[in-house]
Design a protein that fits this description.
Two copies of one chain form a homodimer. By secondary structure, the first copy, chain A, is of the alpha/beta class. Helices cover about 40% and strands about 15% of the residues of chain A. Chain A binds a DNA duplex (21 and 21 nucleotides) through helix 2 and helix 4.
DNA sequence: TTGTGCCGACCAGGCCCCGCT
DNA sequence: AAGCGGGGCCTGGTCGGCACA
């Protein structure tokens, strides 16, 4: 299999010039006469020659490949932001390669210029470990704790969670429960911490922890949990730490004939695409994904400066009001 | 930036052995005494050495990297199957790297062992062009027309479309329209062709083409189209060529107070995750994604045999009955 | 002797310094 | 001065060979 690919040497031989000349023609770093230039290019074209990237990277110690490490490629939240980042890297001459797995071998080798990590389920320790291995440009898309050699561009969970709980406070529904994500997730940890703070101060209650249920950030688990809780009629407000889980809550409500926005209130986080397609629309926390993606790419490229030090950037969140919260007056 | 990484030569120097010895220790192709082995490994461990993949690939002319080219990473259909393929490649020692773009430069270079193409919007000509460039293992996940140097493992659109239209035939709703995808998409072409055939034979009508509307495979466009059509009350059955578009139809129906499964019928294709979370559940065409992924990986690995010839495999489709079609009697 | 254990040296493809005409 | 080429080098794999028991 895999026919041998044509090399620069073959091009040189056929064109009757040296390898050096072909190389110069291809990357235009030196003046070459128009005559040889066209001759070489014609042969390159004809033989469909492409430089061997391994050889190129090896020699130049440089690469325009950027990895994106994600916990799962099958997640709307991940792919929505990934699509934008991909696009922005592309316009700057970098190619984004998405890969999954805890810490794949391949990122420890040096075919990549650097990478970004978009991963709900990577603990701080995992990140430190990763940063030790990838001694290059690295941007993490979650968390707030500075890392030795990676920048952070993450969403502002604190303001986001505050916005949504303040909105929910306007509802007559006050028997709140929290459907949260996996404990390893940094975003989950942050959302949990700030929720507790607000719950205590705004709702003036001290029994936060007993109203927290794990939905593992996925709709099926959240569905199971919600179904049980609804049957026992313990709660009339469901604060989901992401939109996927809100979807599971919607499904449970539909099954039991509960009207969302009337009988119960439901909130999400992330504003992924289907949250506006639900009936009623899901009130959730949005973050401008375009700005986020832009910040990620800029932060990444900032490593190109000599002596650049890692930075931490927080992307502001806003409230996306729809109809899943019942409000006292219809404001 | 990017501290210089440690090389095999440094390891050799520190261990007081030759590079050859270190190399043999690392890939165990030759007997090395236990004593030197442990000594070398200790230093490798300590300096956190990882072989330079570019150098390795260059020398061995071999790679365990597989690309997955997709039109968009932000599509549930793509990511659901991708996640499974990723996993199966992983268990066979290959690393899957997902990338987007028409024909990215990087796949023409030889850092990849080969790749798969999962792309609704790549025409046959694009595929031929791609196959010319990637003269290696290649598996395409759509289409039926044999390619010179790539295998095909695609879903059986014909049987899928037949199943769903036969089911719809049991409904009293007979004013059918078809919401289809972009014309370049091979899957769209196949679904369109077979729909026309069945429409003519089963429903015995000859005016197929005037009931076809383009929804571009995305929910927003489908929503716009559906809203207009519903307002004019021209149709009571909406056959969507994928589930995303069915989502748009659901939204339009909700807005106009139309009950799906009662006032109108809606069908999908692909059975992506949220189709079972909708209310009512979406009746759609399912394909066993696990079998599909398995077939893709097996087909890919078959290229390892000498003189392997490209193959074409069709993955069977089945009907996922839910409640979005109104049936005459409640069977 | 006949291995066993190790090493020197070359090779893979392409970039680019430096020197030649 | 303008155009071109020789050859070292980036890193790691591997073959033939050599020393030593």
């Amino acid at each position: 299999m895999s026919k041998k690919s044509v090399t620069i040497k073959e091009i040189a031989d056929i064109a009757g010039v040296s390898v050096a000349t072909v190389s110069y023609v291809l990357n235009g770093k030196k003046k070459i006469s128009e005559k040889t230039r066209t001759k070489v290019l014609a042969i390159v074209q004809q033989l469909n020659y492409t430089p061997n990237l391994s050889a190129q990277n090896l020699r130049t110690q440089d690469s325009k490949l950027v990895f994106a490490l994600v916990n799962s490629i099958n997640s709307s939240f991940n792919t929505e932001i990934l699509a934008k980042i991909d696009q922005k890297f592309d316009s700057r001459g970098y190619q984004l390669l998405t890969l999954t797995g805890k810490i794949p071998e391949v990122i420890r080798t040096n075919i990549f210029d650097g990478g970004i990590v978009l991963n709900y389920n990577l603990s701080f320790d995992d990140l430190e470990d990763l940063a030790r291995h990838v001694h290059k440009k690295m941007v993490i898309l979650s968390g707030s704790t500075p890392l030795k050699s990676a920048s952070i561009v993450s969403m502002d969970n604190e303001s986001g969670m505050t916005l949504i709980l303040e909105e929910l406070y306007k509802s007559p529904h006050k028997r709140i429960c929290f459907i949260c994500g996996p404990s390893e997730s940094i975003n989950n940890q942050e959302r949990l911490a700030i929720s507790e703070k607000i719950f205590k101060s705004l709702f003036q209650r001290d029994d936060f922890s007993i109203h927290v249920y794990n939905g593992f950030f996925n709709s099926d688990a959240a569905y199971e949990v919600a179904l049980k809780l609804m049957k026992s009629d313990s709660y009339d407000a469901f604060v989901c730490f992401n939109d996927s889980m809100a979807l599971g809550v919607y499904q449970a409500a539909a099954e039991l004939g509960l009207k969302i926005g009337e009988d119960i209130s439901v909130t999400g986080f992330d504003n992924i695409f289907f949250s506006r397609h639900l009936t009623p629309g899901l009130t959730t926390v949005a973050i401008d994904k375009d700005s986020w993606a832009e910040a990620v790419v800029e932060t990444y490229l900032a490593f190109n400066d000599e002596n650049h030090e890692p930075t931490i950037t927080k992307i502001p969140a806003s409230l996306k009001k729809r109809k899943s919260i019942q409000l006292r007056d219809n404001t």
